[in-house]
């Protein structure tokens, strides 16, 4: 029998599973489960069991080849049975580790409920230093035997050894699963593990996971739950706004009773309650906060008055502070002020955080002058607490104390901290009072968080390339290192930035800065800020738009060299956009170097940047403007029968050649007939909506060759043409003014000044 090969079977190991069912065993059953293995039913028939027994006997006697063949025969007849795979693994254990592990893997997958095999495979993976695979094997073993504490401890040891996930998520998961598996008589260990897991999740503000961790002891051992655990659970539920569950905790564990109503919108209204005596202060505070969040303030006033009378604020000031925060969060500023005013006068709790909350409460009560004084007290207590400056500056601006607000909003960036929201408000105020010099400085500081301030021509050329921001910064770094210049601003880590705005909001602000620079005719700054945006990782999504703005900035600042380069790059990517062609033509005209266009055409032809139908009209127009009419005719003759534009260009070239020739009158006569026929051919195949254009071009043709009476006829036809497109867009498509002006020139040259004046007053003079 041919031997079954498993050398090429891939081994797939998954990550830790997230959900393992809780153990519902009794304490006695849980204590016995570590030593008692549950019986795994065999999938073999009676005769195959006998064959399998014989195979094991041959293996024990050392007759390995016969044992292998027997195992393969059992696999052939019962491929889903795990016994032959396990025996084969034992056969290869000492002489072929790869096959040993592969057969163990097969045994595990055909019998996933056998935890012992998973443990053996996990040990092999651990010996091979494959910790991830070993962790998964023990996770599968735990699935098969959830109440086995040894398996949980072994997996936790492996996870700690691997350092699974820097956030300790794997270790926390293992501890929580261990808490679910521990017998109920080990309640102290269960509570300790769950409390530890909840604290770690609380630190990273993952309140949902923290609540799940604390719910394990509350559900499994409710009679052993401590006040600290309940207090933490209530804190988490309040932060998660799960107030109905808070009421359940108060009822089940704290001895409260409630008379309440559940509204249709699922809101809860508490009408009355009974509270046990000698209740712990933290639990009582959580109850008051819960009632405040449920907007049942009519029940709170007596409780607060009782606390003010009986409790010492010097000792329990933090409890009062929590209640004041809850009142402010629900809009009860006046009531919160009753707690904060005596609190800031205490010795133990007259702290910057309490004064800050006091200032916010005063502002909520619209006591702005007192709030400003309170904010100044916070600044005196905590000079480095820049978050206070923003609300203080807003209050000063509201009271029209702009100079004082400007002093407050100014930041000392030498400390290495930058409050972005504060800087934006400072920019708005500087713009409002007209201090543009400092305004532009703040704009540059704002953008320097994620943009590069270009320092030389080489860096500017790098910014114009269509590369990723990372590649551009790397190139600029090399340039600066070559020039022995500072590169610290390329890391964007010189400030500890806080209160970052949304990317889209900041981009809108960036465009407002550019627009204001343009409106203020600060074209140098306009171009500078536009080029900075090309090197922004934050604005990378809007690179195409910024590139176009930078092109217009070059035009405004008369930097035609860079503007031409940018217009050419945009054109190569948007050659079908007529507006881009206009921008490129304008840059080419202002640059006043026709060689650029010829080089551009040669490059685009060589690189096949444009499709054929786009490239040939470009070349034809180019040759026409350079008076190379023979080449122009060669390009447009291909379009003679199908394109009215081709006919028009052929007619124009022939007309120009006719006007240049001075000899051989017979040839001139025949050429004139050709020009006339071409123009009439153009007018015939032109669209019916373009009659005005066709008449106008015929009039121009006759005017140029000196047949003024015929030109007059066609110019007058232009003045009488009417169609829907002209009526809708007369300022774009209309040629009446041009025709009237040319007609007035004809009248004027013939001495008919009255007719010339009449046509001007009728069609041109407003």
From TrEMBL:
The keyword Metal-binding does not apply. Gene3D superfamilies: Tetratricopeptide repeat domain. TPR repeats lie at residues 115-148, 692-725. Keywords: TPR repeat. It holds the Pfam family TPR_8. InterPro entries: Tfc4/TFIIIC-102/Sfc4 (IPR039340), TPR-like_helical_dom_sf (IPR011990), TPR_rpt (IPR019734). It comes from the Eukaryota. Residues 22-31 have a biased composition (Acidic residues). GO terms for biological process: transcription by RNA polymerase III. One of its GO terms (cellular component) is transcription factor TFIIIC complex. The gene is LOC115884343. PROSITE patterns: TPR. This is General transcription factor 3C polypeptide 3. The keyword Transcription regulation does not apply. Residues 16-40 are annotated as: Disordered.
């Amino acid at each position: 029998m041919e031997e079954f090969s498993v050398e090429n079977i891939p081994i797939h190991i998954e990550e830790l599973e997230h959900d393992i069912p809780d153990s519902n065993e009794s304490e006695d059953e849980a204590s016995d489960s570590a030593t008692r293995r549950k019986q795994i039913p065999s999938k073999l028939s009676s005769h195959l069991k006998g064959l399998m027994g014989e195979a094991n006997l041959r293996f024990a006697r050392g007759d390995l080849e016969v044992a292998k063949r027997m195992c393969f025969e059992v696999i052939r007849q019962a491929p889903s049975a795990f016994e032959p795979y396990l025996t084969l693994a034992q056969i290869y254990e000492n002489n072929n580790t790869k096959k040993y592990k592969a057969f163990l893997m097969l045994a595990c997958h055909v019998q996933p409920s056998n935890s012992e095999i998973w443990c053996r495979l996990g040990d092999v993976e651990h010996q091979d230093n494959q910790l991830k695979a070993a962790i998964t094997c023990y996770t599968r073993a735990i699935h098969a035997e959830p109440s086995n504490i040894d398996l949980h401890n072994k997996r936790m040891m492996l996870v700690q050894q691997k350092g699974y996930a820097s956030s300790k998520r794997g270790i926390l998961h293992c501890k929580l699963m261990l808490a679910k598996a521990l017998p109920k008589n080990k309640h102290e260990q269960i509570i300790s593990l769950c409390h530890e897991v909840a604290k770690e999740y609380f630190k990273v503000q993952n309140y949902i996971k923290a609540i799940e961790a604390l719910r394990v002891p509350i559900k499994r051992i409710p009679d052993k739950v401590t006040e600290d655990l309940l207090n933490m659970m209530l804190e988490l539920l309040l932060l998660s706004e799960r107030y109905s569950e808070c009421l359940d905790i108060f009822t089940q564990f704290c001895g409260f009773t409630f008379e309440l109503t559940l509204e249709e919108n699922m809101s809860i209204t508490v009408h009355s309650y009974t509270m046990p005596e000698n209740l712990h202060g933290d639990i009582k505070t959580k109850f008051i906060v819960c009632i405040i969040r449920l907007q049942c303030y009519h029940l709170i006033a007596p409780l607060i008055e009782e606390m003010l009378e009986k409790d010492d604020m010097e000792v329990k000031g933090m409890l009062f502070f929590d209640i004041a925060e809850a009142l402010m969060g629900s809009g009860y500023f006046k009531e919160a002020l009753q707690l904060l005013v005596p609190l800031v006068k205490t010795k133990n709790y007259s702290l910057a955080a309490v004064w800050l909350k006091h200032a916010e409460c005063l502002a909520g009560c619209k006591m702005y002058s007192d709030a400003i004084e309170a904010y100044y007290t916070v600044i005196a207590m905590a000079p480095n607490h820049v978050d206070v400056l923003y609300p203080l500056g807003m209050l000063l601006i509201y009271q029209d104390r702009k100079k004082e607000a400007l002093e407050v909003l100014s930041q000392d960036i030498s400390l290495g901290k930058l409050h972005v929201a504060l800087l934006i408000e400072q920019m708005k105020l500087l713009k409002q009072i007209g201090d543009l010099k400092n305004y532009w400085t703040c704009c540059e500081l704002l953008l320097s968080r994620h943009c590069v301030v270009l320092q030389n021509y080489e860096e500017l050329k790098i910014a114009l390339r269509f590369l990723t921001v990372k590649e551009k910064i790397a190139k600029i770094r090399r340039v600066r290192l070559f020039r022995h210049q500072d590169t610290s601003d390329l890391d964007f880590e010189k400030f500890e930035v806080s209160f970052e705005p949304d990317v889209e909001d900041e981009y809108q602000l960036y465009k407002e800065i550019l627009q204001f620079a343009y409106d203020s005719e600060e074209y140098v700054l306009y171009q500078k800020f536009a080029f900075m945006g090309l090197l922004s990782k934050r604005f990378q999504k809007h690179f195409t738009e910024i590139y176009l703005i930078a092109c217009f900035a070059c035009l405004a600042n008369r930097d035609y060299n860079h503007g031409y380069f940018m217009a050419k790059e945009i054109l190569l990517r948007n050659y079908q956009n007529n507006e881009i062609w206009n921008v490129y033509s304008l840059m080419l005209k202002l640059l006043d170097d026709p060689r650029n266009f010829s080089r551009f055409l040669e490059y685009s032809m060589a690189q096949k940047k444009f499709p054929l139908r786009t490239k040939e009209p470009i070349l034809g127009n180019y040759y026409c403007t350079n008076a190379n009419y023979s080449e122009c005719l060669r390009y447009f003759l291909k379009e003679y029968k199908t394109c009215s534009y081709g006919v028009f260009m052929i007619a124009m070239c022939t007309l120009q050649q006719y006007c240049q020739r001075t000899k051989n009158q017979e040839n001139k006569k025949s050429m004139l007939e050709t020009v006339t026929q071409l123009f009439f051919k153009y007018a015939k195949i032109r669209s019916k909506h373009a009659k005005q254009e066709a008449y106008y071009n015929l009039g121009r043709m006759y005017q140029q060759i000196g047949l003024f009476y015929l030109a007059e006829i066609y110019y007058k036809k232009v003045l009488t043409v009417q169609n829907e497109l002209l009526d809708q867009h007369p300022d774009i498509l209309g040629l009446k003014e041009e025709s009237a002006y040319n007609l007035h020139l004809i009248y004027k040259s013939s001495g008919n000044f009255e007719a010339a004046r009449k046509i001007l007053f009728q069609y041109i003079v407003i």
